[in-house]
Write a structure and sequence with these properties.
The complex is a heterodimer of chains A (about 425) and B (about 325). Chain A has about 425 residues and is α/β, with parallel strands linked by helices. Chain A has 13 helices and 17 strands. In chain A, the strands form four sheets. Chain A has a six-stranded mixed beta sheet, with helices on both faces. A four-stranded antiparallel beta sheet of chain A has the order 2-8-7-4, with no helix packed on it. Chain A has a four-stranded parallel beta sheet with strand order 11-10-9-12, with helices on both faces. Classes of the chains: A alpha/beta (about 425), B mainly alpha (about 325).
C-alpha cells in the first residue's frame, strides 16, 4: 500500500495557524438565520411558523425526498421570520430567522436513538441531520446506504484536510478522537465492513499520533492510519480513494461502486456523538482565520450564526475585510456579505483584507502547461479554456472536461493568472446544457 | 442593524489564492539563468559585449513599449519577455556586430515576429531565433565576422568559429574541448561559454521553469548523430560544445509558446532540432544550423501538438490515476 505512485499534486502554503488552537464555544448570538438548503439534493421545508417557540435540537426543517437531511434548531427562542434570501449559489433559499432567548432549552425530541438493526442505524444517521461536513454536504445516510452494500469492504475516513488554513478535522481528531473511532466502529459493524482507513496528511502530526494511540489503546485490529503526503488536493474524494486503495475513480462514479464507504472524519465524530447523546447537529467547529481577523480561532458555532457575530467573537476585524470565504481558499465560496449565516458545511470562515482579496489581472497564456502538470487527473485546462471560448462542445468532450473536479490546482499554478478553474466550471456547464 | 454588516465584499470564483510565480518571475528566472553566460561573454569579448547586450535589451523594450502605446494595447514591458528577447538577440550575434543593425534585428523580433502575431503567447516562432536568421540573411558579412577573444595571443582582430574551421576541413587547427567548454574561441556573444550555459540550463531545470525533455533530446540527438557520422567521441563532444547547440537547446528551443505542449511532442521536437542541426552542419553549406533547426521545428509545433493529442486521448485523456 505504500510504494504506489502518487497522483500529481501541487504545493500550497499550509497556513495551519490554528492547528494547536483548542476549540472554544462562542456565546449564543442574538439572532440566527438557519438555511433550509444545507445539503446536496432536496432543500428542506420549514416545519415551524413565525411566532413559534423552538428549542435546541428541535426539528425545524425536513422533506420527504431520499437525498435530504433534516435541519434542527441550534438555539432556543422565537421564530422571527421565514424569509427568502439569496444564497451563495446565486439562487433563493428559505431561511428561518430565530430570535434567541439565550436559555438554550433542550428540546424534548432529543433522545438517544435505539439501534437494533441496519435500518435503525441508517434512520439514526438521517435523524442526526448529518451531511458531509468537509464541504460537499452530501447526506450521510445516503452515503452509508449504497445499493451494492454487500460489495463494500472498506471504510475510508477523509481526514486529509488538504485545504490551507482549515484545522477543524485536525481538532476533531485531537479533541474528539474517541468518538471518531466509535463512529467508525459502528459504521463497520452495521455495514459489515472489513477494514477502516483514516487518511491524514502528514502536516497533522498531533492528529496522527492521537489516532494511532487510540487505536492501540482500544486494541482495534481492523483500523489503521494512512499518512498522506501534505500536498493539494489529497482530500478530494477521488484522489483519496486512489491514494488509500489504489483504485482509479472517474467522475460520476461513487466510492461505493469501488467497494468503499467514504466519509469525512468530523462527520463520523459528530454522528457518533448523536448516537451517544441524542443531540443532532446543531453546532459545528469552524476555523476562523485570515489576515483581517484579529484573533484566529477554532470556534464551536451554533448553526445559523451570522459571520459577523462569529468574527466579533474572534476579536473583530483588524483590517477592513474585502473578501470572506466560507470553506477553504482553494474550493470555498466567497460570500458577498458577512450577514451570511454559517451552515453545516461551513468548515472555515476566512476573512481577507485587500492585500489577499485582490483578483489578479489575467495576462496571456504562455503555454507553459503548468495547469496540465498540476492537474491530479492530467487534464488540459488551457485547451478547455480555448474550446470554451470557441463553444466547441465536441472538443471539450474529447479532452474529458467532465473529469474535472474543480479543485482549483490549475488556477493556482497559472503564472498568467488565468481563471482556469472557472472556465472549467463554465465549460462543464456548457457540455451539460448541450447534452440536454 | 443594516450598517452593521459589510455587504460589499469581493466575490470571485475559487480558488482564492494563487502562486507567487507569475510571468514576470518566470522571465526573470530565465534572465537570471542567462547571467553566467552574460558575465562570461563580457569576460571573453570585453566591453563591446556589455554594450551590445545593453543596447539590444533597451531597444527591444522600447519597441515593445512604443508598439503597445501606438496600438493602444495593455503595456506588457513589465513581464520582462521583451528584455529576455533583447538579451537573446545580443547573445546570438557577434560581439562586434554594428549596433544599428542589431537594433533593426530587435525591431524585427519584437514588432514583426512577436507583436504582429498577437504579442506574448501568440507568436509562432521564437523572436530571438527568427531575428538571428533575419540578420544572418540581411547582413551576412557582419554576421559571419567573428571577433577573437580577449585572451587570443595573436594580433588578429577577427578569427573563425570552430565550426567554420571544421567546415573548411582544417581539423588540426580546431580548439581543444577544454577551450570550447570554457568559451575561449570565436563565436556569437553568448554561445561560447559552454560551462556557463550548462549552469544556467541546469538551474532552469531544477527550478522547474523548463522541462528537461527538449534540451536532453536536442543535445542527445546532436551527440549521437555526430558520433555515428564521424565515428569519433571527440568530434561528437565537439559538436555539442561548439556553436549554438547549448544556448539553443536550453534557452530558445524550450520557449513555452513555440514548443509542443505534451512530452511526446517535446521529445520529437528536440530530436528534430538535433537532426536538422547536424544535417546542416555536416551536409549543408552553412557551418551552423541551430537557428534554422529551431525555426523549422517551431513551425512544426502545431502538427506535433495534434500528433501528441492523439496519443494522449488514446490513453483516455486524463491519467485516471495511472
Amino acid at each position: 500500500m505504500s510504494q504506489r505512485k502518487h497522483l500529481p499534486s501541487i504545493h500550497v502554503p499550509h497556513h495551519k495557524n490554528t492547528a494547536a488552537a483548542e476549540t472554544v464555544t462562542m456565546p449564543v448570538p442574538d439572532e440566527v438565520s438557519i438555511s433550509m438548503s444545507q445539503n446536496i439534493g432536496a432543500p428542506c421545508k420549514p416545519l415551524v411558523e413565525k411566532g413559534d417557540y423552538v428549542k435546541v435540537g428541535q426539528r425545524i426543517g425536513d422533506v420527504e425526498a431520499f437525498v435530504s437531511a433534516p435541519i434542527f434548531s441550534s438555539v432556543s427562542g422565537t421564530v422571527k421570520a421565514i424569509e427568502q434570501v439569496r444564497g451563495s449559489m446565486g439562487g433563493f433559499e428559505t431561511h428561518i430567522v430565530i430570535e434567541t432567548d439565550k436559555k438554550q432549552e433542550i428540546s424534548e425530541e432529543v433522545k438517544v436513538p435505539e439501534i437494533n438493526s441496519f435500518e435503525d442505524f441508517i434512520k439514526a444517521a438521517r435523524d442526526s441531520g448529518m451531511v458531509g461536513l468537509g464541504g460537499a454536504s452530501f447526506p450521510t445516510h445516503v452515503k452509508l446506504n449504497p445499493k451494492n452494500l454487500d460489495e463494500c469492504k472498506y471504510l475510508v475516513v477523509n481526514a486529509a484536510e488538504c485545504e490551507p488554513f482549515i484545522t477543524t478535522d485536525n481538532r476533531e481528531m485531537v479533541e474528539n478522537g474517541q468518538d471518531v473511532l466509535d463512529g467508525m466502529k459502528m459504521i463497520m459493524q452495521w455495514l459489515n465492513l472489513e477494514r477502516g482507513y483514516i487518511g491524514i496528511e502528514t502536516n497533522k502530526p498531533d492528529a496522527i499520533a492521537n489516532m494511532k494511540k487510540l487505536i492501540e489503546q482500544n486494541e482495534i485490529k481492523d483500523m489503521e492510519v494512512v499518512p498522506l503526503p501534505s500536498s493539494y488536493p489529497k482530500g478530494a474524494e477521488r484522489v483519496l480513494v486512489y491514494e488509500v486503495t489504489g483504485q482509479t475513480m472517474n467522475a460520476g462514479v461513487l466510492p461505493a461502486q469501488l467497494g468503499v464507504i467514504l466519509d469525512n472524519v468530523s462527520t463520523i465524530g459528530v454522528m457518533a456523538e448523536y448516537i451517544k447523546t441524542g443531540m443532532p447537529i446543531v453546532r459545528r467547529r469552524v476555523t476562523v482565520d485570515g489576515d483581517a481577523v484579529a484573533e484566529p480561532k477554532n470556534v464551536f458555532v451554533p448553526i445559523g450564526t451570522r459571520i459577523a457575530d462569529v468574527v466579533e467573537f474572534c476579536g473583530g476585524y483588524k483590517k477592513e475585510p474585502r473578501k470572506i470565504i466560507m470553506g477553504g481558499p482553494m474550493m470555498g465560496r466567497a460570500t458577498k456579505s458577512d450577514e451570511s449565516p454559517t451552515m453545516k458545511n461551513t468548515s472555515a470562515i476566512l476573512c481577507f483584507s485587500q492585500d489577499m482579496a485582490e483578483v489578479k489581472e489575467e495576462t496571456a497564456c504562455l503555454n507553459c502547461q503548468r495547469c496540465h502538470t498540476a492537474c491530479p487527473f492530467g487534464l488540459m485546462p488551457s485547451i478547455f479554456a480555448d474550446a470554451y471560448a470557441d463553444k466547441d462542445v465536441d472538443k471539450l468532450n474529447r479532452f474529458n472536461v467532465m473529469q474535472c473536479m474543480e479543485c482549483g490546482s490549475c488556477s493556482y499554478t497559472c503564472p498568467a493568472r488565468r481563471p482556469l478553474a472557472l472556465t472549467n466550471k463554465l465549460a462543464k456547464f456548457m457540455v451539460k446544457e448541450a447534452s440536454k | 442593524m443594516a450598517n452593521k454588516f459589510h455587504t460589499n465584499l469581493i466575490v470571485s470564483s475559487a480558488p482564492h489564492i494563487v502562486t507567487e510565480s507569475d510571468t514576470t518571475r518566470l522571465m526573470g528566472t530565465v534572465i537570471l539563468a542567462l547571467a553566467p553566460a552574460w558575465v562570461a561573454s563580457i569576460y571573453i569579448f570585453g566591453f563591446r559585449a556589455l554594450l551590445l547586450s545593453i543596447v539590444c535589451v533597451a531597444a527591444s523594450v522600447l519597441f515593445e513599449f512604443c508598439y503597445n502605446k501606438i496600438m493602444h494595447k495593455t503595456q506588457t514591458i513589465g513581464d520582462l519577455s521583451a528584455a529576455l528577447t533583447g538579451l537573446l538577440i545580443a547573445f546570438n550575434v557577434p560581439s562586434t556586430f554594428p549596433l544599428w543593425q542589431a537594433i533593426i534585428g530587435c525591431a524585427f523580433a519584437i514588432i514583426v515576429v512577436k507583436q504582429l502575431f498577437g504579442g506574448i503567447g501568440r507568436n509562432f516562432s521564437n523572436p530571438a531565433i527568427t531575428a538571428r536568421i533575419f540578420l544572418f540573411i540581411s547582413f551576412a558579412g557582419n554576421m559571419s565576422t567573428w571577433p577573437v577573444t580577449r585572451l587570443d595571443a595573436t594580433d588578429a582582430v577577427t578569427g573563425p568559429t570552430p565550426l567554420a574551421i571544421l567546415a573548411e576541413g582544417s581539423t588540426d587547427q580546431l580548439p581543444s574541448l577544454g577551450q570550447l567548454f570554457l568559451g575561449f574561441h570565436g563565436g556569437s556573444t553568448g554561445e561560447v561559454c559552454a560551462l556557463a550555459l550548462i549552469i544556467g540550463g541546469v538551474y532552469l531545470i531544477i527550478r522547474k521553469v523548463i522541462s528537461p525533455i527538449i534540451p536532453c533530446a536536442f543535445i542527445g540527438t546532436v551527440f549521437v548523430f555526430a558520433l555515428i557520422a564521424t565515428g569519433s567521441l571527440h568530434m561528437a563532444l565537439f559538436h555539442v560544445l561548439a556553436g549554438g547547440v547549448l544556448l539553443g537547446a536550453f534557452f530558445m528551443a524550450t520557449d513555452y509558446v513555440t514548443s509542443p505542449k505534451l512530452p511526446l511532442g517535446q521529445l520529437i521536437f528536440g530530436i528534430g532540432c538535433g537532426i536538422i542541426t547536424m544535417s546542416i552542419r555536416l551536409f549543408g553549406s552553412y557551418p551552423e544550423g541551430v537557428s534554422f533547426s529551431i525555426l523549422l521545428m517551431n513551425i512544426c509545433t502545431p502538427l506535433l501538438n495534434n500528433l501528441s493529442y492523439k496519443f494522449y486521448l488514446k490513453e483516455g485523456g486524463a491519467k485516471n490515476g495511472k
